Amino acid sequence: MDYTSPGLPWNVDFISVEQFSQLTEFFWGICPQPELVETVLTFIREGYEETEYEKEERMREEWLQTLKSSQSRHIIRLYTIWDNDRAGYIDKKEFSKIITTWPRSGEFSKLSKLPELLDAFPFTDEDVASREEILTILTDACLNLENELDFQEYIEFIQKSIRLTNEEKQRGRIRTEWLENIIAISRSCGLSFTSIFKTALGCIYKDNENHGNGKRARCNVALLEYLQGKKALHYVTASQDDHEGVVGKVLREGNKCIGFSVIASGRMIHIPKILETKKNIYFFYPKRKVLDRERDGSFICCPLLHPKGHVIGVLGIDTLAEMEKKQFSAHEVSFYQGVAKTLGEAYSHVELRIKLVKILHSAFRWTLSKVESINSITVFIVEDPPTERKDEGYILRRVLTMYQGERDPVEDANPPRIFRKDDVFKDYLFECAENSEPTSTETFGRLHWTIPVRDSEGNPMAVIDIEIRGRLTKPDEENIHWMARLVTIAVLELSQGYREPSKPHVLEVEGIDEENRLAVLFSRVLLTDLRRNVGKLDSEAYAEIKSYIDPPKVIHDVLRAVLYIFNPNKHDAFKQWRNCKQSVNIDLSKSIATYDPTSFCDEVQVNELQQLLSVVPA
């Protein structure tokens, strides 16, 4: 395993050499006292004893993990061979027939019960089995095959049962390279979708030429959006001939458009003859409706899927402009579904990073307002290197910088990339990404705090570089750590994908559209954390507040501001402390726990609230 890759997440069961070094440096400091090091080493050598039983159990567990890992690689490789056209699924009848007919199945309990297990398995489709379903079934079926020779024999039996011609195998290899290229580009294209759209549509054009008898298909991509709470398809790219008339168009759910049927079902729809179908097909060019029947074409609409499984858009392909070769073959239909699936994954990868930068913008504004000792905050996203430098490992791309005292961030039209070999003074950023742990270092006389941002699987997505001027106080450090924790919570939510406006939201403004949700996401996570802390207040805390006869001014000012939000008509009354403390009770906690600052309220004057809080220390 390459422990220096940025894809290595923090694991609760083991740590790499680099992570161990980082942990010891974090707790001991860069130059620890020799006595301290010797004490710890002595404790480890003498203080831990492993019994013979524990040793055997550990060795068996390690062996089983190695076996499972090896079997998993073989099963994935087998699936790749089987799904030759990269559709993302296999015919269920063919799959069930092959895996249950191994002559030696009766010797193993799991394999002998496969027919019953398949009947009870909760497949999501009646006719096909998805990649995830197939991997789950085969992994479970092979649990009894602890003997490597038995496992190899079973896998070889399945592989020999998959009948593919040399031409089909070659076609599968070429298509695999094309789809892998889409993913590779999404890992190195910064915050732009242009290159992944261009590459995905290019795959279809090349496949038409090489495996579709030279037919001319036209393509378009539409993304799912919500306008006033209703679904809409926003067309973002199309073939060159259709670009002017299609890109930028928005179809609402009321329009006759087959794309909404695909979104609802999550399945591809193939229409062999467009003009003869009764399904709802929207024509961007009305003149195409009156084409001669002899020039009728085929249409395929495939769902773009987020890695979590929900639909985020559609890919449409038609042959109305083709004069002769109108019909799509079965292997073409399968491949187009693979293109749509891959494009959905690639798009989601880039989209997550764009949303991350928006969240960090809000987080940095809050942090800079709280910590005056910060000079600047910069975020670098983790990317794969270009092909010509792939042996150098991952790279970092600077995408956002904010300075103390400036409200707007500094953004580059073409964000610069950092290669580790080219800039030794930025090595601390790469160390942070590798170890998935915060670090601190001094560069050019300035202290830098670096914080990794990880995805839901623990892999680093970005590195936050905080440049400090002067000294940090304890509250400053706490605010920076707080920001890092809240960013982590926000990123985990982002990783789940788009949230429909119809689903419950914490804040009213989140239900308007995705743009508003992103704008307030960090603030909402911050608010939720504050609500949780307020909820921990008990009767003793309220009694302490009420015990004040003449409280410190800051306590009175803060309480006045809070009470004004919920009782704007009693603003003048709360100038007297006795009136304030009468309102401090469990009902106030409940009001705070459900307060939505984005909900519209005529009675609360923002200027008045700001004036009340202006005298409160930040």
Quick overview:
The chain is built from 21 helices and 14 strands. The chain has 618 residues and is α+β, with helices and mostly antiparallel strands.
Fold and architecture overview:
The protein has 618 residues and is α+β, with helices and mostly antiparallel strands. It has helices at residues 17-28, 34-47, 52-82, 92-99, 109-112, 114-120, 131-141, 148-161, 166-186, 194-211, 243-246, 259-265, 330-370, 427-435, 474-494, 514-535, 539-546, 553-566, 577-582, 586-593, 606-613; strands spanning 89-91, 128-130, 218-227, 230-238, 250-252, 269-271, 299-305, 311-318, 374-383, 395-403, 417-418, 439-443, 446-454, 460-468. The chain has a 6-stranded antiparallel beta sheet, sandwiched between helices. Strands 11-10-9-14-13-12 form a 6-stranded antiparallel beta sheet, sandwiched between helices. The longest helix is centred in the middle third of the chain and has 41 residues, at 330-370. Mean pLDDT is 83; it is low at 1-7.
